[in-house]
Amino acid sequence: MQTRRAFLMFASAAAVAVPLTPAFAATTFVGVIKRIEVAPDGKSANVILKMNKGGKDITIFIKDELTLNKFKIHKIQEGDEIRCRYDVEDGKNLSKSFLRTAGC
Fold it and tell me: How many domains does the chain have?
């Protein structure tokens, strides 16, 4: 009985100590691609998007192969509406998810 009580006290203390939402949660928004700038080596790209809410421009750094391949075969191009999720790492907005809203 005491081990169960100790376990319940530990579990409830752990639940209080750990927040449910991470402090490093990614930012998500929808915007239209204004410009795609692929690096000369083809291993990264900077994409300038105009956010639908607020209308400000934001630059997203992309380095995943799947998205870079979509740029190469023009499956994602300037003028497309994009749903983007990113984290700020080393002062850059690093893409975690970069998908067309119409499907891709």
Answer: 1
CA separation (Å) from 102 to 6, 14, 29, 67? 52, 42, 15, 15
Residue 61's domain comprises 22-100
Q: What is the pLDDT of residue 25?
A: 73
Q: What is the pLDDT of residues 21-63, one digit of tens each?
A: 455 578 999 999 999 999 999 999 999 999 999 999 999 999 9
CATH number at residue 63: 2.40.50.140
The helix/strand/coil state of 70 is helix
Element housing 16 (H / E): helix 2-17
